[in-house]
Design goal:
The chain has 6 helices and 7 strands; from the N terminus they run ααβαββαββααββ. It is α+β, with helices and mostly antiparallel strands. Helix 4 packs antiparallel against helix 6.
Length: 297
């Protein structure tokens, strides 16, 4: 009876298997290192995203304060006028009251003028309180968009008046109230009005038009000025952070960037009207949405 002998594995084959085993082990080690590196990169990315959110929140606080600084001198000038009138009319009324016989009609007329001046000051202060009183305001409520337009126009009015810019508002096609943060939408409009004022202040014909349109599914707000429409190159960059066409010291480049963030948070859009003969920005806000908190928090 014969038996079959199994030849031992050649030493060359054993060496090859050993070599492959070592390469496999080294590959596993490299994969482990790569996985560790990827994990660290993911942690760094999350940290960067967190810093970005903090930065955006900081910018959202800075922008209104910057606008306040820009408006303060114009608002101060606007308030000084009524206060001067009040003082002069009050002094005149006192003199008339002391005279014999008392000039009742003139005193009554002066009192009416004083009342109008006080109402104007109250409107200016109310506008400031509405916009700057709560920079962290994030509540969404049903709001008449026309009221926001007039509030923004009231705050920008002194600056526009000083530069001789005519402002017209067409709110004849009002739709239903929209769910929004009143302060944030006002911030966007004030930024657009500021930009428009700065871009046309040296022109001969200076005007800004705000139009409110009730369109199917959304409310549109258009801010148009007498400046020429933006070139395709500018349109592609105008909403980028830190991009500005203003001279050094006049623009931070964060206004339109934040405006876009705010409108997108409202599930809306903001864009440049490329078909308009003039410079025009269009904001579209949905008539119904379910937003209740700020995306940055």
């Amino acid at each position: 009876m014969s038996t079959t002998q199994i030849d031992p594995i050649p030493s060359l084959a054993l060496e090859a298997i050993s070599h492959l085993s070592m390469e496999l082990h080294q590959t596993k080690m490299k994969v482990a290192e790569k996985e560790k590196l990827i994990h660290q990169m993911q942690l760094d990315l999350e940290a960067a995203k967190k810093q970005s959110r903090v930065f955006e929140q900081s910018l959202s606080q800075i922008a209104p304060l910057a606008a306040l600084g820009e408006h303060s001198c114009h608002i101060s000038h606007e308030i000084k006028g009524p206060l001067t009138s009040i003082r002069l009319l009050s002094e005149l009324s006192l003199k008339l009251l002391r005279s014999v016989p008392t000039q009742v009609n003139q005193v009554s007329e002066n009192s009416n003028s004083i009342l109008k001046s006080l109402i104007r000051i109250e409107q200016i202060i109310a506008g400031l309180e509405s916009f700057y009183g709560s920079l962290s305001e994030t509540n969404f409520e049903l709001t008449n968009p026309a009221e926001i337009l007039w509030e923004a126009a009231s705050l920008c009015g002194p600056k526009l008046k000083q530069h001789g810019i005519q402002l017209t508002i067409d709110d004849s096609t009002q739709g239903p109230p929209i769910l929004c943060s009143r302060i944030q939408i006002s911030q966007v409009l004030i930024n657009l009005l500021n930009n428009a004022c700065d871009s046309i202040e040296l022109q001969d014909k200076k005007w800004i038009q705000i139009a409110l349109r009730n369109l199917p599914g959304f409310t549109q707000i258009e801010v148009k000025d007498s400046g020429v429409r933006l070139s395709p190159e500018l349109r592609s960059k105008v909403f980028e952070a830190a991009f500005t066409t203003k001279e050094k010291g006049r623009g931070s480049g964060i206004g339109l960037y934040l405006s876009k963030k705010i409108i997108e948070h409202h599930q809306g859009t903001i864009e440049v009207d490329e078909h308009s003969e003039f410079c025009a920005f269009q904001i579209s806000l949905p008539k119904t949405n379910k937003i209740v908190t700020y995306a940055g928090k």
